Batch of 3 targets.
Target 1
Amino acid sequence: MNANFVRKVLFIERVSPLFAPISTIPEEYHQELLSYRGEYFDEDAYWTMSSTHDQLGPFSLWRHYVKAHTEILLCPFTPYSLHTLHFMFANSLNVKLYDDLNFDLEEGQCNLFNLHADKHEVLMTAGQHINSFHINMRLRTLKELSVRYPVLRRLAEKKISLLSNAVNEHPLFTTATSKLLINKYNRCNYQQEDHRRYFGERCCLDLLLNFAYQEQQGDQPMLIYGVLNAATFRAIFNYIVNQPYEEHSIPELAKQFFIPEEMLRIGFRQHFAITIELFIRMQKMMMIYDLVVFNDISLPEIAGLMGFGSESRLNSAFRSYYKCDLKTLQKPR
C-alpha cells in the first residue's frame, strides 16, 4: 500500500472500554446511536468513525460506521486473537490481510473469521462508507458452545490457522433470520443492563447458530420446489413473525399455505437456516421477553396468552432459552 495514505486505526476489539460521552458526539449522529450502549466516535478532515459496543456474556458485540472524506488506509486492529462473526451491510471492501493474501468483504455477506492480534489494511476512497456488525468471542468459546450445540461442532473442530483467515470455506449471504435478529437487537430499548445482557446474549447465540446451520447445508442444493415457492416461504416467515402468540402447528401451516408438510420443513430450513419449529419458538420467546420487561402483566396471564398453560412451564421454558428467571426481569408490582 502507498505509504503516503493517511492511516486510521479501527479497533475491532479493545482490552478495556473507554467510551465517548454522548455530549462529545455531534447531534446529527445521535439518531444513529443505540440506546444504553457504549459509543466510540472520531471525526476529522479524513474520516468519520462511529462504533457501538456491548459486552454480552462471552460475546463482544460491535457495530461500526466509517466514512472516508479523503483516500485513507483503514487499519482494523484487534489486541488479541479471537473469532469474529462478521456481517457486512455497506459497502464492499477488499481487505489486505497479508502481503500475499487479500479477502473481499461483500455487501450482504457474512463470514466467521479467525483473527490474530494484528493490524490489517483496507483502502477506502473519498466518499466511501462502511456499515458492519460483528460478534467477537475468545477462541475457546466456540469449542465450549459446541458441547451444548452440536451444529457448531463442524466450525469448532476446524484447525485454527496461524494466520488470520475465514473459517468458512465460502462467504455466506446474510439470511432473513439473521437480519431479523440484528434488527431486533438494534431496536431493543432495555434500560437495565441485565435486561439487555440476557436478551443480547441469546441474539448473539442465535446468530452464531444460524450461521452454522447455513454453513452446514452449504453443499446441499436448494430444492427446485423451494426455489419456485420462495415467495410462499417468505410469507410463512412473516406470518410467524407477526403472530408469535399463535400456536403454529406444522400440519396447520402446511394446509394453510398449500405446501406438503415435508416440503415445508425442508424448504423453510433451506431458505432461513433454521428449522421452522425453532423459529416459532424464537419468536414466541422474544414476545414473552418484551411482555415481561415492558408490560404490567402477571406471569400466569402471560403463560395463558402464550399457550404454556402454567407459570411453572412458562418459567422452565424461558429459563432454558434465556438462562435467567422471569422474575428477575419482571417489573415490581
Target 2
Amino acid sequence: MLVKLVKGALGHTFARGGVHPPTEKKATQGSAIETLDPQGEVILALNQHIGSPALPVVAVGDRVFVGTTVARATGFISAPLHSSVSGTVTAIENRPSTHASGLAVPCIVIASDGQFTPDLGLKALGDCGKLGRDTLREAVRLAGLTGLGGASFPTAVKLSPPSNHPVETLVLNGVECEPFLTCDHRLMLEAPEAIIAGGRAMARAVGAANIVIAIEANKPDAIAAMKQAAAPYPEIGVEVLPVRYPQGSEKQLIQALFGLEVPSHGLPLDVGLVVQNVGTAWAVHHLLTTGEPLVSRVVTVTGPLVPRPKNLRVRLGTPLREILAACGVDEKVMNRATAILGGPMMGTILLNPDAPLVKGIGGILVMDGSVQERNPDPCIRCARCVTACPTGLLPNELGWFAKTDQFERSQEYDLFDCIECGCCAFVCPSRIPLVHYFRYAKSQIWFAEREKRKADEAKERSDAKKARIEREEEEKRRKREEVKAKMAAAKQEADATKVAQAAEETSGEQA
C-alpha cells in the first residue's frame, strides 16, 4: 500500500502549522449512540449540501413516508432530499436556518404521524461486489448522500472521477480532530464492520485498489475495533496518526499519510486519492443493506452547560431545540448560553434554536455565553498566526485585506486556499476573529461573482434580444423589398401589357 512507502517521511503528520487545542472529548467518548425521534414536525432545508439547492417535487397536503423523495437534485453538484418521517407535507416556505447569517431559507415542512413508516419503494441493493460501478454511483446519488464530515459535498460526485484521474487509494477519515466531537469515534466503536463494508463499496465505485483508514492516537479503542474489522481484507490498512489539529482536513490528512501535497485549488483526485468520512461509509452500507436514503445522522451534544451530554442518531429536519432539550438544555440554560454548531474551532454560532438539523451538523456545543464577548485588540504583528497556518498563508495580511474590503488583494494572497480551520484565531494574542474576516471576504467575492454572472447573463439576453430584433427587422425589410419588387415587376408587366394592347388596338384601327 502506498501509505506504507512514505510512512514517517514527515513524522507521520502534516508538514506545517497546526495547533493542539484541548480535546475535551471525555464527556461523550464513552456514551453509546442513542436514537432520538422528532416529537412533531420536521423541517427539511432544500440546500443541505454544497452546490445547487434541491427542487421540491411534493406539494402541500401530500402524504409521504420515510425515504420518500421530496426534492430532486438540480445539477451535477447537487443532491436530492428525502422525508425523514412519515406524515403530511404542511408547508413549503422559508424557515430559520443554521447558516451563520441566521437568514431564513426555503424548507419543506412535514407533520410527523409518529409511525415512521418506510416508503414501499425502498429496497436493499445487496452485496456491492455484485453491483456495477455505475449502479453504485447512481444508488448513492439518488439516496442524497453527502459527506458527513462537515463539508456536505455530494458523495456521488466524489465517486465519479473523470477517466483521466485514476484513483489508487480510498481514504476513510476517522481522525475527528475537532475538540468535543465524538460521533465518528462512537460509530467506529459500534459499527466497524458497517464502515468497512461501506468503504469497500465506495472503493469499488471509484476503482481504488486500496483503502486506508486514518485515526488519531487518542482513540485506541476505535483503532482496535477498526483493525479487527479490517483484518480479513489485505487491501485495507488502519493508520494511526499523532494528535494534531487540523489533521482531519483533506489536504492535511493526505500530506500526513502519503507525504503528498494537493495543488492549490486542486482536489485529492489530482494525486490519485478520494477521501470520505467514516460516517459517510456507514451511510453507504446502510443504503445497500436497507435501501434507506440519508435521513438521519449521528450528532454529539456536549459542552460545559449540557446537563446530559450524548451522542444521538437524529432524523434530519428535527428542530435543534428538541435535540438540546433531550440533553437537558432548557430555555433557562439557553438564555445564558451560546450554542455552537460543529466544533469550537470551525463551528458557527446558532442564532435560532428553531432551526432544523441538516446533513452537515455533527455536533452542538453549549458554552457559557461569555465566549461571544471577545473584543479584539490591534494586531501586534507577532506572526503567530503565520506559524500556525497549516496551508502556509499569511492570515494577518488576509485579515487586514478582508477588514478593509480589499478583496482583490485577498485573492492575490490565496484567500481561497484557506480551509477556515481557526488555527490563526486560536493562537492570536489580540483575539482577532480572523476566520470571520475570511468568511466575510469569501462571501463578498462570491456575491460579486454571482452579481457579475447575473449581469453578464442579462447582457447576453439583452444582446440576444437586440440581435433577434435586428434579424426580425432585417427579415421584415427584406420581405418588404421583395413585395415592393414584386409589385414593381407586376406594375411594369401590367404597363407593358397595356402598351402592347394599345399598340394592337392602334394597328387594328389603321388596318
Target 3
Amino acid sequence: LLNYLQLILGHYHVSYQKLTNKDIPRLPQLREQFTATELNVTMTDYKFEGWLGHSPESVNGKMEWGAFEPKKWTEDDVDIEVSHCGICGSDLHMLRSGWAETPYPCCVGHEIVGKAVRVGKNVKHVSVGDRVGVGAQARSCMQSDCPECSTGRENYCGRANVSTYGSVYPNGEGKSYGGYADYNRTNGHFVIKIPEGLPSEDAAPMLCGGITVFSPLKDNGCGPGKTVGIVGVGGLGHFGVLFAKALGADKVVGISRKASKKDEVLKLGADEYIATDDDKDWAKKNARSIDLIVSTVSSEKMPLQQYLTLLKVNGTYIQVGAPDGGNLPAINAFTLLMNGIKVGGSGIGSPSEIKEMLDLAVEKKVKPWVQKRPMKDANKAIVDMEAGHARYRYVLVNEKHAKL
C-alpha cells in the first residue's frame, strides 16, 4: 500500500492531502504514520523557482532564473505564492557579497507579499488563502528563556537569527531563499497577515524598508513635541519622513545631499529640507535644532560628525544604514560629552512591530512612493536601483499571481 501511495504521489507530483479516503481506504492512518521525508516525495503541486545570483557579478543584472530547494517543511511553516516583492538595498549588498561572502546560489528579496497556500498545523494566526507578508527575518530561537524572543524583540535574537535569504536554518532544515521567486517558505511566526485597506504593492516595501525606520522612530520617542531629522531621503528615508509624520512629530526635516530633491521631500510631508552639498554652512545654520535623527545613509564617507551637531542637548542619533564592510566615519568624543548626545543603531523590527506599523499605515493612510516592475524584468530593475533611478521603491510584481 505504501509503494502504491508513493507511486501515485511521485507520478502526479501532488500533495497526499489532496487524495481522499475513497481513493485509498487507509489514507487517514497513513497520514499519521508517515512523514514527507519517509515517503520521499515532493509535498506540493507547485515549484520553487526564482531569480538566483551565482556570483558577485549577479548584481550587474546577471541573475539567472532557476529552481531551488526550500527549507525542509515543518508544521511551523507557511508556503506563500508570491505576488509582490520589494527591491531593497540589502538585496544588492547580498548579491555582490558586500557585507560578507554570500552563500551562492542566493535568491534575494525580503519584502514579500502573497497568498498563503500551505499552512503548518502549528501556525494558528494564518489560514490558507490569507494575504500575508514576510520581512527580513525568517526565524529566531523563540525560546522562553531567550531575553530577546521572550520580550518581543526577536529581531535581536542572538541564538538562532535566520535571515529571509542567504541563511541556514538550524536542525538541518536547509537554506533560506527570498522573494524574487514564484513561492517562498518561511517559519510561520514571521509571516504577517496584511490588513485590509493596504495594497500589496504598498505593504511589500514596508516589511523591510518601512519597519527599519518605524522601529527606531517609535522606540526613541518620535511623536508630538519632537523635531525629527531623516538623513538620506531615498528608499528607506522616504519611509522615515512618512512614518515620522504618521507618529505625530511636530516637525520633520529631510536631510540629503542635493537641493534638487527638496520639492519631492516636502511633497512627502517633510516640513523643512537641508541640502548638505549645496550649502556649505548647513551644519552651523541648523545646530542644536533636532531631537532625533535617523540616518539611512550607507556610506562610510558621510559627514557623521556634522550630523551630530544638529542634535539638541540630550538628542539621539540612530544609524540604520549599513555600509559595505560596516565601517562608519570617526566622531569626536567631545561632541558627545558636551551635548549629552546618545548614538545608537537599530535593525529591522519584530513581528509585533511590523503588525503595529501596518495597522498604523492603514489608520493614517501612509502611502509610499512605489514603482511596479514585472518580476520577469528583475535584472533590469536591480540595475536601475543601483543607478539610483527608483522613486522611491521598486516593487516586483509576479504576473503569474497578480496584475501589474
